[in-house]
Amino acid sequence: QNVTCWRKKFLETLFSNVLHGVLDVSSDWRLNEQHFSPLLHCSPYVSQLTLCSVLQGAVELAAEHNRGVLENLAGSLQILKFQHLLSSDQPVRRSLVFLLHRLIHHGSVSQVSVYSWPVPDPVLLLLILSMSAGLWRSGNALAYHSSPCGLCRGEDSALSPDLAPERGGGDTQNLEEAAVEVNGPGAAATLDSVPSRPRSPCLQGSAWEVPQGHPSTQGGSPHHVSDSLACLGRARRPTVGRRRRGRARGPRADPEDLYDFVFTVGREGNSELLDTNSTKEGENAESWTGSSLGSPCPGPAGCKKRGSAGGLSLRAAQRFRSVSTLELFSIPLTGEMCRTLSNLLSSWVSLESLVLSYNGVGSNISCILSGLRALSRRPACQLRTLRLSDVSSAVPCLELVGCLLSAHPQLRLLSLSFDLRNQLEGQPVCSGGEIPESCLEQLEIRFPREPLHTTFLLPVLKASKSLQQLSLDSATLPCSQELGLLLEALKECNPNLKKLSFHDVNLAEHQKEVLLMLQDPGLQEITFSFCRLFESSTSDFVSEIINAVKRNSSLKSLKLPGNRLGNQRLVALADIFSEDSSSALCQLDVSSNCIKPSGLLEFAEQLEGHVQRRGGRSPFPHLRLFQNWLEQDAQTAGEALRRLRALCSVVTDSWDSSQAFADYLSVM
């Protein structure tokens, strides 16, 4: 899992389990201490947090007795996730506003992700999106607290007089003059989000200051609590962590099994929590902004329709720090919500990465394009990564690539992935025309089984002189010359291309083009994944591949997963690393290639001979062997892996091919 610090991982898990009531602290004598708060103790180590269901975690964190916890999170939390949300009442939403304002606007949260919300509450979703974008309408949103946000007052005093009204420091008249309605690119010109920056240190004398005498204020900054200052003292103990029974622990419990207590109970409790949450009913949504949310979208594809929950109207909206990454997974976005997102995007200058996955955008992609187009015209725009995936695409993939690059040529990474193409005819999402020169460096396209026409891709390649990585997935080649035309276009238009990847593209009849790619001196990484390379090949083709790689001194990585390589061809590949080879290959991936233990052992023996003849120098450092048939003879496979690991780094798994085949048959 790439865990760099297990102590941090443990404390972060403990925090989450206590907050959500998965782990009952009273069930372990070491945690059930009168002057000890697990939330306060763990909070400085929490870098990502997930809030679920009815947002009870948000309510708990916004409570007065957890003020020290919230201050710690404001300095440590980087990623805030929402999962399986349900509709909530107004007090819960007020707690969420309070929490988001502290963690995003005056905190260090840089990424907001929302997952799995089949029937999203438009008011709650609007709240999350707008506050993530740095927009907040003050007033009665925090009325249940004793005073307005002291951090806002503190920051206003440090700002110059002409900037203070933008952060709530001016009078009502000035705020009204500075406020706008987010109704498209025209209005967006006056509503910039404040780029992400470090959290303001002005906590003294503010409404957020930890009370004197609180342990978190002793001998250090109030917004970072050290391990030795985890006791709550006079502060009230939190009420979370007492809703479910956990594993009982007596005074004689082994101190080492606290890890097992947290992680094991956490896994069991999370499953229970999700099952319970799935049966709860959402409550009726109430208006958060108190104003009409309808607004027209200036997009060309008929999205000028007005509605009651689509656009965003925020009177006296103030500008605050905003996040740099927004991710929306499996959340249906209506046309009205797409218009709202478009209006937010048009001024979200701090946004660096946008991920929209399975949101049912369809033809409403024109609204997203409109927002991106307005955003790209802002000098401070930082958006560099855009990932879109969905079941269907309203337009052909290559046309959509051109539209997105035309709307936002500053993109560095563009990834599109669709399962099916929408056959419904609709208005074009962009006006066409020449694509301006872009800054694109990485392009990933997963076609919904569309034919790959180089003539449509050529304008994109010409506009992307800086392209370094190209990945094409699930495309069909309409004719035998199409792949050759693509390679010619890449050679002519993209001299900086370093990585080329094909996945699930039938290359069985394109052996000539495959060899040309392997001979290309500019490519450093080539991937042919499940491309049926050897379906109709002969031994001569394998020899030609070996000779091409042996003569290519620039190729660093060759990935051939899922091509039915088999034992015989694997053994032949060992010749790539012979003493007369000029190859600089340092990574070889032969996963999912029907390799048996006997073939792997022979491959290892061949490599050992080449190493001896090369004076003991290892031919390559990395070998990947996932999902091969190694369980058929565990002893032989073990011997082969032992020999290989003496030569290079081997990454494999304990995959059961028989069980995988049974699973495959069960879903046929």
UniProtKB/TrEMBL annotation:
Cite the SUPFAM superfamilies for this sequence. Answer: RNI-like
Q: Which domain of life is it from?
A: Eukaryota
Q: Give the record's GO CC terms.
A: cytoplasm; nucleus
Q: Where is the composition biased (Basic residues)?
A: 234-250
Ordered alphabetically, the record's keywords are: Leucine-rich repeat, Phosphoprotein, Repeat, Ubl conjugation pathway
Q: Where is this region: Disordered?
A: 187-255, 270-296
The name this protein goes by in its record: Leucine-rich repeat-containing protein 41
